[in-house]
Amino acid sequence: MEQVGHPTPYAERVLDLVERIPPGMVMSYGDIAEYLGEGGPRQVGRVMSTWGGGVPWWRVVHADGTAPPGHERRCLESWGAERTPLRGVRVDMRAARWDGKP
């Protein structure tokens, strides 16, 4: 069952980090967990699927640069608008990965 209500403290930290990813850059689910020093890719994915609609969710991708399943078209549109470096229909992780530093 989907969680409702307010995000957990962990979810708030994930969402705050996602909001700081600059346009044209991305982080993988695992990158976010590693940056925060807690959780893992699945936990980040759960946060994004439950509460991520209000943040630039298209900037969070799988480690291979692919979009979340079912969101490929919308991601490609957003990536194109932000000029995110691509390799075909995937994000070029070498060029677009954000390390969390300003």
From TrEMBL:
Residue span, Methylated-DNA-[protein]-cysteine S-methyltransferase DNA binding domain: 10-68
Claim: NAD is one of the keywords in the record: no
Keywords, ordered alphabetically: DNA damage
InterPro entries in UniProt: ATL_DNA_repair (IPR052520), MethylDNA_cys_MeTrfase_DNA-bd (IPR014048), MethylDNA_cys_MeTrfase_DNAb (IPR036217), WH-like_DNA-bd_sf (IPR036388)
Pfam families: DNA_binding_1
Entry protein name: Methylated-DNA-[protein]-cysteine S-methyltransferase DNA binding domain-containing protein
Native organism: Streptosporangium longisporum
